[in-house]
Design brief:
It is a single chain. It contains no helices and eleven strands.
Length: about 120
């Protein structure tokens, strides 16, 4: 069984920063990528950023230059540093990890960017 502990969401003003973390624990062996999707009310879940097990990184075009994803493989933890936040970054951010048993998801954390 895999457990995820997500933290770092909250309310921030436009231009501000937040740092999300996602720690996976349990009897797991993460073989692939970790990352985040986000979901805005009424829209499809979209990929925000991912980092593979060898460190290859991909970002959504909308966050390039503002967000930075990193990973501590030994701790099965990923981090998403979000700078220069915009109101359109508001949503629920779901972390995930690709395990040998398939993709597993965290419970999600709310990010709200508003003045």
């Amino acid at each position: 069984q895999v457990q995820f502990v997500e933290s770092g969401g909250g309310l921030v003003q436009p231009g501000g920063s937040l740092r999300l973390s996602c720690a996976a624990s349990g009897s797991i062996f993460i073989i692939g990528a970790m990352g985040w999707y986000r979901q805005v009310h009424g829209k499809q879940r979209e990929l925000v950023a991912l980092i593979s097990h060898v460190g290859t990184i991909n970002y959504a075009d909308s966050v390039k230059g503002r967000f930075t994803i990193s990973r501590d493989t030994g701790k099965n933890t990923a981090y998403l540093q979000m700078n220069s936040l915009k109101p359109e970054d508001t949503g629920i951010y779901y972390c995930y990890a690709d395990l040998s048993s398939g993709r597993q998801w965290g419970q999600g954390t709310q990010v709200t960017v508003s003045s």
